[in-house]
Every structure is written in structure tokens, then in C-alpha cells.
Amino acid sequence: MQGSLPPEAQEKLEELQNLQETAQNVSEQKQSSETALNEAQTALTTLEETDADSKMYREVGELLIETDYESAKDDLEEKVENLEVRVEQLTKQETRVQEKFESLQEELQQMLQGGAGGAGPMGPGGA
């Protein structure tokens, strides 16, 4: 059905498909970052409930290296802050991609309605 579309409509359709892939990638990155953030927040909460004199270890590659309470807390706090910023950035990016997708979808529908007289090739753009 794409072969019967005008070249401008085909370009818009390809751009929509690319945006859909981008949206999926951003969503996956956001989900991964949110999971890491939840894990870091849980670790920080657990650390704050732990005696400061307890032995602590940090995972470095395949090794566990002994560390002190303050270093572990500082590192976790920094990790939480960085992940919060990352999730916020990905949320904004996700919104921008969605808005662009909806705008392109509307342009494509108008193009097809105006150029094709209505219903025929609307199928690919309607998803």
C-alpha cells in the first residue's frame, strides 16, 4: 500500500516509523533507569538503617572491595541524584517524541485525506 502513496506521504510515514522506534528506545532506557533508581534508593535506605561501624563492601567488576560507611553513603547519594536527573531527561525526551509523533501523524492524515479523497490509504497512518 505504501507504493500508492504520494512521495511526501511516504516520507512522513517513514518518519513516523522512525519516531516510533525512537519512542520505544527512550521508553526502554527510562524503564531501565527507573529500575536502577529504585534499587539505589532501596540500597540507600537500607544503608541509613545500618550501623555505621558495620563492615561494608562495594562491588567493583567481579570483586567485592571493603569500604567505609561514609564513602558508601556518598556514592549511593550521588548515584540516586544522577539517576533522578537521567529519568527526568528521559521523561522530557519521551514527551517530545510523543508530541512530534502525534503532529506527524496528523499531518499525514491531512495529506492523505486531502490528496487521496479520503479513506483508501489511511491504513498505515492510522496505527
UniProtKB/TrEMBL annotation:
Gene Ontology molecular function, alphabetical: unfolded protein binding
Main location group: cytoplasm
Protein name listed in UniProt: Prefoldin subunit beta
Family: Belongs to the prefoldin subunit beta family.
Function field: Molecular chaperone capable of stabilizing a range of proteins. Seems to fulfill an ATP-independent, HSP70-like function in archaeal de novo protein folding.
UniProt entry keywords in alphabetical sequence: Chaperone, Cytoplasm
GO cellular component: cytoplasm; prefoldin complex
Pfam families documented for this protein: Prefoldin_2 (PF01920)
Name of the gene this protein is made from: pfdB
Listed Low complexity bias regions: 34-47
UniProt region (Disordered), positions on chain: 21-54
Places the protein is found: Cytoplasm
Annotated organism of origin: Haloferax chudinovii
